[in-house]
Amino acid sequence: MPMTEGGGPGVRLKSGIPGLDELISGGLPAGTVTLICGPTGSGKTLFALQSVYKGAVEFGEPGLFITMEESRPSVERAAKQYGMDLRKAAESGKMLVLDMAGVRKRAPDEISVEELVAGFKALGRLISGIVKERGIRRVALDSLTAISLYYAEDEGYLRREVFRFVGGMRALPGVTSLLVSESIDRMGEHPRYLMEQFLADSHIAIGLERVQGEYRRSVTVPKMRYTPHDSIVHPLLITPEGLEVEPETRVK
Fold first, then answer.
1. Sorting pLDDT into bands at 50, 70 and 90, what band is 1?
2. What is the mean pLDDT of the chain?
3. 37 beta partners
4. Which of 7, 65, 89, 144 is the most exposed place for a label (fewest CB within 10 A)?
């Protein structure tokens, strides 16, 4: 199994995705920022949600999942299909789902984008406050792409804000972050969002291809700092319990 040297050993967090930890030296490097890229329908949201949920419910690491576009009820319904009870996790104080679309809908029209917590600065402040108040250890944001749309007219400003935001997430003490972003190919690349891949500590790419009339998902780890990792393309399956990687099989 080819391995890419990404740095020295460190504390690992179980990813919550069966089969994935075998590819990344036992788990996600604690305290780092991982970018999860994939095209529409590939399962990148489920990936981030499953990792945070498993961390909170099974591994004792309080989690925060932020959805920028989908409503909280929609996220809860989707999660329940795979045995994840987000309401129960919230009631027990283990996990919080923050629905930013709902926040924007309830706000007056005259409120600015930043005040709606749709921009990177305000969102960063909000996350920092929740992390301190609730002792959060895992954060997932779905998605960077949705926030970036608000900066469409100023590419330079977008780059500066993403740089500051990713740096702020990395600086949160004891927090491991997953940032979801849109891509257009197997390696998780998108002409506009290559900058995000450079800034993140790790990059996990989810592919979605049509083969003989059916869609097949794959997962690749192009980059993971501090970690010897497998760089082969492996099958990614959606099961009744969620996502699962086949670490001994490669996509041909």
1. low
2. 87
3. 181, 205
4. 7
Contact 165, 123 (CB under 8 A): yes
Distance of alpha carbon 53 from alpha carbon 61, whole angstroms:
9
145-148, long-range: CB < 8 A, 24+ apart: 145/180, 145/181, 145/182, 145/193, 146/68, 146/69, 147/68, 147/118, 147/119, 147/120, 147/123, 148/192, 148/193
Under 8 Å CB-to-CB from 213, ≥6 apart: which residues?
none
Strand partners, 207: 218
pLDDT in tens, 197-246: 778 999 999 999 887 888 899 999 999 998 999 999 999 999 999 999 99
CATH value at residue 66:
3.40.50.300
Report the number of distinct structural domains present in the chain. Answer: 1
Q: What is the pTM of this model?
A: 0.90
114-127 pLDDT, tens digit per residue, is 545 568 988 999 99
Question: What does the block give as tokens for 51?
Answer: 């990792």
Q: Is position 26 within any domain?
A: no
